Structure prediction request, 277 residues.
Amino acid sequence: MFRNILVHIPSERPIRPVIDVAVALTVARRSHLDAVAIGYESMSAAGMIVEGGGAAAAAVMGAEQERAQERANAAIAVFEIEAKLAKIAYGTRTFAAIPAEAGRTIGSLARLYDMTIVLQPEPSKASYDNEIPLQILFNSGGPMLVVPYIHKGPLDAQHVGIAWDGSRLAARAVRDAMPFLMGAKAVTVIAANEEAGEASSDHLVAHLGRRGIAARVQRLKADRGDVQGAILSVAAESNMGLLVMGGYGHSRLQERILGGVTRSMFDCMTVPVLMSH
Prediction:
């Protein structure tokens, strides 16, 4: 029931969207909220230890760690102000790390929580904060709520859309989103280019009905490269405040690669999206 929530507070990007959503959601669900902020150490500074060696390189690295920690502390301080004003139960954690270590650490940390809230990546602006959502999606084992960087205010989950293709990942996302679905006033199952099968959108609506969730199906046809655009159009036209979908991807040479629709949604989302992998 989302009683234990984690939020990643960016240290290099706008933080207001995730703070507003996380704090309001914690108040509404009487949850505990932990916030984590990471200061990223420069890779070039880390390389000096190998190339330069000695006391000089160690001093440079120490100074870089201090600057990274200061950035993380500054980000978490803003969160703490809002958390105290809202009188929620919360905890904080900050640390400095090189990007690869940061991703592994927060991916593991997120495994302890019912849900993790992150800011949508913004590829046009270089930042290691952009890599954190992908690490959490693939490594946490739980749902991740992605908040658009243009989002303002709390989460509005009165009308929830489900991007349904009958897959295992879509089914996982629906199960993970059940607290939102059971509290919504309207639920729409969006079926793009649907083919007949045992896990059809009609079957999903029937199963949701057994839980007391009244849902309807909206079918659509879209070119393979524009499925994400079609889903977002439906969301906008129907005034949906939350989308639920599976987060697709695979490994290639130790690198995580997002699937096409998932990558497009990461890049272009206009409403918060709950993803599960």
User: Anything to note?
Assistant: The longest helix spans residues 54-86. The longest strand covers residues 32-40. The chain has ten helices and twelve strands. Residues 159-276 form a domain with the Rossmann fold fold (CATH 3.40.50.620).
